[in-house]
Amino acid sequence: MDTVFYPIKTEAVTRFNPRFFSMSGDCLYYTNGESRDFVARFKYSLQKRNRRTWTKFLVNNFTVAEYFGHKASGMAPTAILESKGYGVYSEMASVAYETTHRITDDVRPIGVKNV
Predict the structure, then answer these.
(1) N- to C-terminal Cα distance for the chain?
(2) What's the pLDDT at 35?
(3) 70-90: b or e for each residue (b if 16 or more CB lie within 10 Å)?
């Protein structure tokens, strides 16, 4: 007697594709097919490094349906990412950036004076 396995019907898991993100002013949008959905507004952190860190965490930890489902329930974009540990991740990334780009008095490029 052969065992027959029937596939379980589930919603397709769609990961964020980094190529579908676009910036317009200080707002980040995700374009998937015909729809252009608002993702987040970077009101106070316009530095590209902060946006990249935020977007990278979003792509690596959320699906499209999961993120927009939280957003539809009224959660703020940063709160959604913090639910999976974004604050800790961004602090680690910030420390890593500062330690790799730190200029000390011993190693200073030519022409750069002490402040």
Answers:
(1) 82
(2) 86
(3) bbeeeeebeebbeeeebeebb
Residue carrying the six token digits 């316009």: 46
Residue among 53, 11, 16 nearest 32 (CA): 16
d(CA 9, CA 23): 35
Helix-strand-coil split of the chain, %, nearest 5: 40, 15, 45
- pLDDT tops 70 at residue 24: yes
Kindly tell me if the per-residue pLDDT of 95 is higher than 80: no
Measured from the Cβ of residue 48, the count of other Cβ atoms closer than 10 Å reads 10
What integer pLDDT is reported at residue 14 of this predicted model?
A: 84
Contact 64, 15 (CB under 8 A): yes
pTM, to two decimals: 0.64
46 Cβ partners below 8 Å, 6+ apart?
Answer: 26
Q: Please answer whether residues 26 and 42 qualify as being in contact, where contact means their C-beta atoms are separated by less than 8 angstroms.
A: yes
